């Protein structure tokens, strides 16, 4: 199966339901929420330490070579820029990414091999992912033949 033309609208509600369904139980994050804005995807939540630390990350999305790229462009903890926490956050993300064959990690970027993800779900397809656009409250994902 090969996608020749596709425009897929994924809403914040869709994304939040996916997070709720697929966030591992052993993950220490709590109250994780996704918000989509023209500048990117915000992920907020709490990380329990001695007390709950609220955090917010901003991810810039792009596509390259048929893969979805999510680059961390902003991080706040307790409402403040969190340069101190960035290395710990990136290490946690890198460790989580290594658990899935269809995920990769390069510098500040999570790489999603969409075709491989679909294959692991039993769907053999060449998506020809060409663009990912953030807009208010939704992602517009485009794919099409070469």
Mean pLDDT: 87
- Pattern of helices and strands: EHEEEEEHEEHEE
Radius of gyration: 16 Å
Low-confidence stretches: none
Derived structural class: alpha+beta
What share of the residues does DSSP label as strand, in percent?
A: over 45%
CATH architecture grouping: Super Roll
Oligomer: single chain
Number of strands: 10
Please characterize this protein's 3D structure.
This protein has helices at 12-22, 83-97, 114-120, and strands at residues 5-11, 30-37, 40-48, 52-64, 67-77, 80-81, 103-106, 109-112, 129-135, 138-144. The chain has a single domain (5-144), classed as Bactericidal permeability-increasing protein, domain 1 (Super Roll). It contains three helices and ten strands; from the N terminus they run βαβββββαββαββ. The strands form two sheets. Strands 2, 3, 4, 5, 6, 7 and 8 form a seven-stranded antiparallel β-sheet that branches. A three-stranded antiparallel β-sheet has the order 1-10-9. It is of the alpha+beta class.
Please sum up the structure shown:
This protein has 146 residues and is an alpha+beta fold. 23% of the residues lie in helices and 49% in strands. The protein has one domain (5-144): Bactericidal permeability-increasing protein, domain 1.
Write the layout of secondary structure elements.
Layout: E1 5-11, H1 12-22, E2 30-37, E3 40-48, E4 52-64, E5 67-77, E6 80-81, H2 83-97, E7 103-106, E8 109-112, H3 114-120, E9 129-135, E10 138-144
Antiparallel strand pairs: 1-10, 2-3, 3-4, 4-5, 5-6, 5-8, 7-8, 9-10
Give me some keywords for this one.
49% strand, seven-stranded antiparallel β-sheet, Bactericidal permeability-increasing protein, domain 1, single chain, 146 residues, alpha+beta, three-stranded antiparallel β-sheet
């Amino acid at each position: 199966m090969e996608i020749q033309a596709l425009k897929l609208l994924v809403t914040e509600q869709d994304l939040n339901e996916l997070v709720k369904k697929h966030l591992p139980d052993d993950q220490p994050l709590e109250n994780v929420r996704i918000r989509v804005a023209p500048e990117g995807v915000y992920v907020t939540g709490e990380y329990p330490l001695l007390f709950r630390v609220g955090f917010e990350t901003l991810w810039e999305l792009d596509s390259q070579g048929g893969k979805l790229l999510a680059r961390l462009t902003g991080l706040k903890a307790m409402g403040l820029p969190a340069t101190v926490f960035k290395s710990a956050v990136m290490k946690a993300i890198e460790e989580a990414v290594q658990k899935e064959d269809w995920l990769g990690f390069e510098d500040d970027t999570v790489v999603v091999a969409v075709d491989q993800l679909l294959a692991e779900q039993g769907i053999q397809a060449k998506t020809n992912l060409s663009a990912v656009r953030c807009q208010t409250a939704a992602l517009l994902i485009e794919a099409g033949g070469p």
